[in-house]
Automatic annotation (TrEMBL):
Protein name: LysR family transcriptional regulator
InterPro entries: LysR-type_TF_proteobact-type, LysR_HTH_N, LysR_subst-bd, WH-like_DNA-bd_sf, WH_DNA-bd_sf
Keyword NAD carried by entry: no
Alphabetically ordered keywords of this record: DNA-binding, Transcription, Transcription regulation
Organism lineage: Bacteria, Pseudomonadati, Pseudomonadota, Gammaproteobacteria, Pseudomonadales
Organism: Pseudomonas oryzihabitans
PANTHER family: HTH-TYPE TRANSCRIPTIONAL REGULATOR, LYSR FAMILY TRANSCRIPTIONAL REGULATOR
A biological-process GO annotation: DNA-templated transcription
GO molecular function: DNA-binding transcription factor activity; sequence-specific DNA binding
Record-stated family: Belongs to the LysR transcriptional regulatory family.
């Protein structure tokens, strides 16, 4: 049953087999035996992809629930499961991971010495289920299906620019003044869309999508554009805090700030009761509970 669930989630016999420590031939045999036992075809198989049939999709949903309940029962009675062990694959946004998660990671490793942690950290969109990731730290709205999420807070954002840029262009005092300014736009790698500038003013949200001559992807190069004097940006405060403190960037329109950015730990529904995932999510909650309120609202 666990093998079938993993194959559906990974859409591949070979990838699921690697996750489970089996050979692809053994994973195929297990599914064939399960189909023979149930008397139905559970999977469509092609040379490029595996997908569930209608019966397979219904059986998968039931299996996820059964396995979660079974993990709960075993976890309550097995001393071994109280100390998480095995491999845990997690993904972090590059800048956020470097600033807030990685510095605290020694504490996690001391607490859970039997866990092997595999961390990827970049800004590309990650398919939690398709890539076999156990947990993803994600900011912004959740667009995924078949996942659960633990809210960790909301990242405070600021609008800022370099002193040289403001000396040349002037400091905006209102949203109307922005028509005379260069806005450096950020392109979401998840949606492929250019994100508008957003401002909260007198209880309302104002979106500004005026043309700009520069659009970037990647948090570090985006902040780098502001440091180079190319225009105004909107970024999480934690990412530009050192530059603001050192005077390399200056906050503008502080009374009309961007909306906060939701932050959550996202993981497959089938992993909700996994001791490994539970340990990681609970530890992340502790880490972000200690982040200063100027950076993260809870």
């Amino acid at each position: 049953m666990r093998g079938f669930v993993r194959i559906v989630e990974r859409r591949s016999f070979s990838r699921a087999a690697a996750d489970l420590g089996l050979s692809p031939a053994m994973a195929t045999l297990l599914v064939q035996q399960l189909e023979a036992h149930l008397g139905v075809t559970l999977l469509h198989r092609t040379t490029r992809r595996v997908s569930p049939t209608l019966d397979g999709a219904a059986y998968y949903e039931r299996c996820v629930g059964w396995l979660a309940e079974l993990d709960d029962i075993e976890g309550a009675f097995s001393q071994r499961r109280r100390q998480p062990r095995g491999r845990l694959r997690v993904d972090l946004p590059g800048a956020l991971g470097r600033a807030l998660v990685i510095p605290a990671l020694p504490d996690f490793c001391r607490r859970y010495p039997e866990l092997e942690l595999v961390v990827s950290a970049d800004d590309r969109p990650v398919d939690v289920i398709g890539e076999g990731i156990d947990c993803v730290l994600r900011s912004g709205p959740l667009l995924d299906e078949g996942v659960a999420a633990q809210a960790l807070g909301e990242l405070v954002q600021v609008t800022c620019a370099s002193p040289d840029y403001l000396a040349h262009q002037g400091r905006p005092d209102s949203l109307a003044d922005l028509a005379q300014h260069q806005l450096v736009h950020y392109r979401s790698q998840r949606s492929g869309r250019r994100l508008p500038f957003e401002f909260r003013h007198e209880g309302e949200l104002h979106c500004l999508d005026q043309p700009g001559r520069l659009t970037l992807s990647g948090a570090d190069v985006y902040v780098g554009a502001a440091l180079a004097g190319l225009g105004l940006i909107q970024a999480p405060r934690y990412h530009v805090a050192a530059d603001l403190a050192a005077g390399r960037l200056c906050e503008v329109l502080p009374d009309q700030p961007p909306p906060d950015l939701p932050l959550a730990a996202v993981y497959p529904l089938a992993s909700q009761t996994s001791p490994r995932v539970r340990a990681w999510v609970e530890w992340l909650a502790e880490v972000f509970a200690a982040v200063e309120p100027d950076w993260l609202r809870r």
